[in-house]
Amino acid sequence: MSEFSLIYTHFKHATTRHPSTVLGIGDDCAISHIPPNSQLVSCVDTLVAGRHFVHETDSHAIAYKAVAVNLSDLASMGATPYAILVGLSLPKAMANDGFCKAFAHGLADACTPFGVELIGGDTTGSPVLTISVTALGFVPSNQAITRQGACVGDVVCVSGTVGLASLALHGILDDLNGDGHANRPPDSLPHDLRQAMQYPAPQVALGGRLIGFASSMIDISDGLGQDLGHILRASGVGVVIDLDAIPSHALLDALPHAQKWQHQINGGDDYQLCFTMPSAKLDLFKIQNPDMPIYPIGQIVADKGLVFLHNKKEVDLLVKGWEHF
Amino acid sequence: MSEFSLIYTHFKHATTRHPSTVLGIGDDCAISHIPPNSQLVSCVDTLVAGRHFVHETDSHAIAYKAVAVNLSDLASMGATPYAILVGLSLPKAMANDGFCKAFAHGLADACTPFGVELIGGDTTGSPVLTISVTALGFVPSNQAITRQGACVGDVVCVSGTVGLASLALHGILDDLNGDGHANRPPDSLPHDLRQAMQYPAPQVALGGRLIGFASSMIDISDGLGQDLGHILRASGVGVVIDLDAIPSHALLDALPHAQKWQHQINGGDDYQLCFTMPSAKLDLFKIQNPDMPIYPIGQIVADKGLVFLHNKKEVDLLVKGWEHF
């Protein structure tokens, strides 16, 4: 908890207080009350400057995304986020009021919409800006949605457009394996691309509603193909995806098919949910939740592997990471 | 949870399974069952190469300490540790089997004695080795021991020797503000010094036993003076410390008084517990827990501030960090 005051000074006025917090920041540890009939859900994700975001990213966006990617992991289990703990390693040049204020506001802007409280933090000096966020949430006991459970015949759905974050990254980097510096500032990107890359919206409300409906779920961080692959492997099944059914965007539609599909299937960093559901449940879910974004894009099949269709004909696509399975 | 397999491959055979774990590593999040009448206790601490350990430290010791300092934070609340989540940022040169195997064994050697399970992890590339550990534990509801609660007349105790870790660090570094490289390898240190610096033992058993006895508690990470100062500030009291009563070591006793006291009061990195207790309770505790290390070193007084005695006469010592209060 040491030396976090620089961030917390700016954050404490903005942060939510969650009724589960018995003791927040300020002692050696935080203490939390777990609601009855709930289980604790936890995850950690680390973002490193020049690897997970270009060095030119402003600190508000960095902090926002570090939280958002973790809330997305909780959402993918159907969990309701409750709190975060932040380990921040900060170069000396950034240990100033301006950086920390914007960073704290970024944390707050990611937490506040979901009632998430900052309950723990540690700031240290480092040559490289590194943010490690642990997120905690609750799920009704024994009802979490895992990667295992997709059944033959289930419909495969996503919660929204995939591929935009990847298109954005390609828009500011000439060489993805370069030094982590952008060739063009993120601000120069069209609004939708910048939002997709820097301010992904964790699908927390949808994730929670899918309890009792979805048979398996994951969030799309490494790319739709690779992440759906995790479901397939855990569930022992395969999939047929209709490329034409994947929610798209005018900027993706303007590209040649092969490029568009690369962004959609192998792009990553979208933080949409990908889940499976029996078709009868899908109909019921839509009736009960007309406000929830849900896009069927394919079907679970017995033959293992990923098959892609365009105009109802099979298309050969290389799925990043699939060779590992 | 992505890309943690390099570590987990080596760790999964060594790690404890905790009965509270419903779902461990391998999905987007872990799921945990919280025991009845318990509260969740959580903390995060980040270690950066060259800042929190010299670059010459072997990966077993790095991993061990990253866990131990967090278990020490849990112990200082009286909590029983249950699980850790690890965010590891790793330079390319270290992403090899040798480093990861030793690192995993270091994690295991810190976790196993306390039945702690690794339930979440994330490994990323980075120019600088950085380890962020989140530790989770349980405490009987509303019985955690905080920094607030020290009363005038309470005895101040520590759980063991302080100052050795600081002496060790000075033994291998000529310049504490240097580049984080040791002038002499840690292996060249006398055994007790190396142990104190690299393998501190979190006082988990004692912390738990102190529930119902200690009126306040903290673990000594920044130095006895500064950490005890947190208790004083939170409790609105002062203290008189008998320097001669602080548990020492032959290597500390061999130093001139002023140097020895510097290590003991301002040294830090000891991870002993410092706590306060009414004297009647102290007598009872000793009778009921003859096996527990507990050393009275002073008394809480109404006059705010830190007073140090040697041969019953006041000694003027500058306490690091105290000027901030």
Short structural description:
Two copies of one chain form a homodimer. With 325 residues, chain A is an alpha+beta fold. In chain A, 30% of the residues lie in helices and 25% in strands.
3D architecture notes:
The structure is a homodimer of 325-residue chains. Chain A has helices spanning 5-11, 59-75, 97-111, 164-172, 191-198, 204-209, 224-235, 250-253, 257-266, 279-288; strands spanning 21-23, 30-32, 38-48, 80-90, 117-125, 130-140, 155-158, 216-219, 238-242, 273-277, 295-301, 305-310, 313-315. With 325 residues, the first copy, chain A, is an alpha+beta fold. Chain A folds into two domains: 5-140, PurM-like, N-terminal domain (60s Ribosomal Protein L30, Chain: A, 2-Layer Sandwich); 155-324, PurM-like C-terminal domain (Phosphoribosyl-aminoimidazole Synthetase, Chain A, domain 2), CATH 3.90.650.10. Chain A has a seven-stranded mixed beta sheet, with helices on both faces. A four-stranded mixed beta sheet of chain A has the order 3-6-4-5. A two-stranded antiparallel sheet of chain A has the order 1-2. In chain A, helix 2 (59-75) runs parallel beside helix 3 (97-111) and helix 4 packs across helix 5 (191-198). Strand 3 (38-48) of chain A pairs antiparallel with strand 2 (30-32) of chain B.
